[in-house]
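Pipeline run #58 for the internal structure catalog. This entry was flagged by the ingest filter as a single-chain record with no existing model, so it goes straight to prediction. Upstream metadata was stripped on purpose; only the residue string is passed forward. Reviewer on rotation: M.T. Logging verbosity set to normal.
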Amino acid sequence: MESIKHILIIRLTSMGDVAMTIPVIRIVLKQYPRIKISILTKPVFLELFREFEKVNLIPAEIKGRHRGLIGIFRLRNELKELNIDAVIDLHNVLRTNFLKFLWGRNFHQIDKGRKQKTSLIKGRFFKQIKMTHQRYLDVFNKINMNISISKPVFPKKSSLEKHNKKVIIDSNKKLIGIAPFAKHEAKTYSFEKMKKIIEYVSEEHIILLFGGGEIEGKLLGKISKNNKNVFSLVNGFSLSDQMDFMSNLDLMISMDSANGHLAAMYGIKVITIWGVTHPYAGFLPFHQNIKNSIMPDRKQYPKIPTSIYGDKYPEGYKNAINSISTEEIIQKIKETL
């Protein structure tokens, strides 16, 4: 461990998985302040690491100069110039496996627990498997860093002063984030039902709506125009802007999606709504209580989880998430606040 002065951390996709690295890296920097850290990730995710002023951020241009086998050779050569002592690969996919082959010694990779996850979704057992954050830690511990996240640290809230012209926040009201979308339909709660929740909760609290893309922007923009105390943060707000607001939330409500992980990395309480996926697969947002995970009744849907990412499900399970009542979600919001 004494000889390791510079570590490269690799995590390329997806946004939720990248966000989950933040609390772990935060602990690493706190416990080992003298070690230099470089992070290799997609350019679109660089902003997620904005709090780490001394970290060297490296954009992986996998659709450009680092594309294909030649691109990986080029990436290896560029990284070798940085005098890196150890590589912590938190991704472990074909691209990073080839990089490992080219790299040589001191290249350590995450054990994703693929066999356990396969057994879970095939119904061979139903129990909590190792959390992703712990899997990340395990890789650092391979180089004897002995890191623990039992006492996590979180950054200070960002100032919202520069956003005052776009979002009017009443300091006497709770600030609640809602991210109503997910990548796959089978883990996205009914938009009509979510509108009812937004309308109810916004009577007493301020609602900030999170999402991305043109379609989501139009839907959330319409809700914000039609309801008091509701603001959409899609159009006209960067990822960095959204992170500013997330750090100030009293509560985040999200699907099993990236926004839940983004809020959790600030220590915000998160209520997650699950469909055909399940927190037992290890993707519960950081430092959250599983009691704040709302799931379909497994007596009615015994095959859940049917997949890890929500893209696969048997007949009759696509709308399992909508068996969750709006009343149950509203009650959980009241309890959490």
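catalog note: Residues 107 and 166 are 46 Å apart (CA to CA).
catalog note: The mean pLDDT is 95.
status: ready for reviewer M.T.
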